[in-house]
Every structure is written in C-alpha cells, then in structure tokens.
Amino acid sequence: MKNRLAFLRRRNESPGSSPVGKLDKSKKSVKPTPEESMKWGESLDKLLIHKYGLAAFRAFLRTEFSEENLDFWLACEDYKKIKSQSKMASKAKKIFAEFIAIQSCKEVNLDSCTREHTKENLQNISRSCFDLAQRRIYGLMEKDSYPRFLRSELYVELVNQKKPSTTSTSS
C-alpha cells in the first residue's frame, strides 16, 4: 500500500508546481556532496539508485518533456515487486494502458516489435512481461537523456558546488 501511495504522490506532482530545475525541500535536506554527485556520472544505474539523483534526473527530464520514460521504468520496477498474481494482472494492464498503448497519455517511444511483444506477454502475466520494453526505454535514457543530464546546468552545479567553509578565522 505504501508503494502504491508513494507512486500516486509522485504522479500528482504537476510540472508547473515548482520552478524548473528546482528540487522540493525534502530532497534538498539530503543534498549530495560533489563527490556523490560525480559518482552519478559513472552510470545511469548509480544515478537512479540515489534518491536525490533520481529527483534531479526527473527534474531534468521534465524540462525536456520526456519524464514518461523514467515514470515507465519506475513503474516496471514497482511491478516486479508485486507478489499477488491478481494485483500483478491489474498493474500490468494499467502500465500497458498508460505507457505502451498507442496514443496513451504517457506513451513511451517503443518500436512496433517491442510493443507487440509486450502486448502478447500480457496474455500470460509474469514478472518479466515488461522486461524487453523496460530495457529498450532504459537504453534510450542511457544513450540520449542521461548524457544530456550530465552536461546540464543542474548536474554541473551539483558537482561544482562549493563546500561550506567550516574553518574559523582566528588571529
């Protein structure tokens, strides 16, 4: 239930609710050090597993109007954690309708073969129904959005942020 509510909470954030490139206050409280931020440059995986990194990447994708790729990838990750077969079936239909069906509200960019393969997988629901589509979208983010994120002002500022001076001046 908590995962579902957290997912809904993320969904209800409107792109115009905060200035572009800004992260909400709860994320700022755990602002990464420049060293942590630099690790995100090693791989997309390292970026996605860090809570602040994920939020920063989402903020960047929002500026490019392509956050549906990340939303789909995260929905697939949540889907894989579902234990109940009936919940899995219901979530699979929802993911397909929201991200994969042609003309869906957050349609991700998949080739017709992958789209058809995923549709066929829904005839026999399993944890791996979306694996191919998820890999394709991950590949798109890795080769396209992620390199642009690493060159973005948002990321560059995180890496180059000045450390607060903790030394006191004494005479």
Task: Please explain how this structure is put together.
- Residues 1-37 are annotated as: Disordered.
- It comes from Sinocyclocheilus anshuiensis.
- Residues 43-159 form the RGS domain.
- Its main location: nucleus.
- By secondary structure, the chain is mainly α.
- It contains ten helices and no strands.
Please give a handful of descriptors for the protein shown.
single chain; 171 residues; Regulator of G-protein Signalling 4, domain 2; 0% strand; disordered N terminus; RGS_sf; Regulator of G-protein signaling 3; RGS_subdomain_2; RGS_RGS3
Tell me the layout of helices and strands.
Elements: H1 2-11, H2 25-28, H3 34-39, H4 44-49, H5 51-63, H6 67-80, H7 85-100, H8 112-121, H9 131-151, H10 153-160
Helix pairs in contact: 6-7, 6-9, 8-9
GO biological process, one term: negative regulation of signal transduction
Subcellular location: Nucleus
Keywords: Methylation, Nucleus, Phosphoprotein, Signal transduction inhibitor, Ubl conjugation
